[in-house]
From TrEMBL:
Boundaries of every NADPH-dependent FMN reductase-like domain copy: 10-160
Database matches in NCBIfam families: LLM_duo_CE1759
Keyword Ubl conjugation listed: no
InterPro entries: CE1759_FMN_reduct, Flavoprotein-like_sf, FMN_Rdtase-like_dom, NAD(P)H-dep_FMN_reductase
Protein name per UniProt: FMN reductase
Keywords, alphabetical: Flavoprotein, FMN, Oxidoreductase
Keyword Flavoprotein (UniProt): yes
Lineage: superkingdom: Bacteria
């Protein structure tokens, strides 16, 4: 059953590439374009926000140290919390996700990702690093009660030349992941996403100290 033409879905993209231009951002843009195109064909309007985490690196560090988010970081966190779908793309460093990527995830509210469809993307020098999607990144989002789609899309340096990994080309993998993601996003309703019943409405310090501030 397809959505009504007036349906709007909010997709947030976070890219943790460190260089400019960045193959990580390039992959993120491709995943967003294919996902948006598929949803558009179904009559679903897409509102997309893209955040480059390198632009928020100082704010993320300050949040981890001081416990509050500056306005630019707060905007990104609010966007994630209000999204119908998240596209998360990171380079692979030393067989796992980038530290900047993990630091951003660490400052997201614990229940903000509950029931949120996530399309995982990763980039690296060789196809050997593709395993990091399933042993490092996917468990991270599963732990946070998000719904990562079955297909994670990895792009090695050689993939951008069009040859791919000899099994399925990068464009094919992008389309497969985007299709699974679009299917979930189309069915997502922000108003029915489950909130963790054990999450705290206020910080623990407020509860222990009897504080009433927000």
């Amino acid at each position: 059953m397809t959505a009504e033409p007036s349906t709007v879905r909010r997709i947030v993209v976070v890219s943790s590439g460190l260089s400019t231009p960045s193959s990580t951002r390039q992959l993120a843009d491709r995943l967003l374009a294919d996902s948006s195109g598929l949803l558009g064909e179904r009559g679903v309007e897409v509102e997309a926000r893209v955040f480059e985490l390198r632009d928020l690196a100082h704010d993320i560090a300050n949040h981890l140290l001081m416990g509050f988010a500056p306005p630019s970081l707060e905007e990104a966190l609010d966007a994630v919390a209000g999204a119908d779908g998240l596209i998360a793309v990171t380079p692979i460093f030393t067989t796992s996700y980038a530290g900047l990527f993990k630091s951003f995830v660490d400052v997201i509210e614990p229940d903000a990702l509950t029931d949120l469809p996530v399309l995982i993307g990763a980039t690296g020098g060789t196809p050997r690093h593709s395993l990091a999607i399933d042993y490092a990144i996917r468990p991270l989002f599963t732990y946070l009660h998000a719904i990562p789609v079955t297909t994670g899309v990895f792009a090695a340096t050689g993939d951008w030349g069009g040859g791919g990994d000899g099994v399925r080309s990068l464009p094919d993998r992008i389309m497969r992941g985007a299709t699974e993601f679009a299917d979930l996003v189309e069915r997502t309703d922000r108003s029915t996403r489950v909130r963790d019943p054990f999450s705290l409405d206020r910080p623990m310090g407020h509860l222990l100290g009897g504080l009433t501030g927000q």
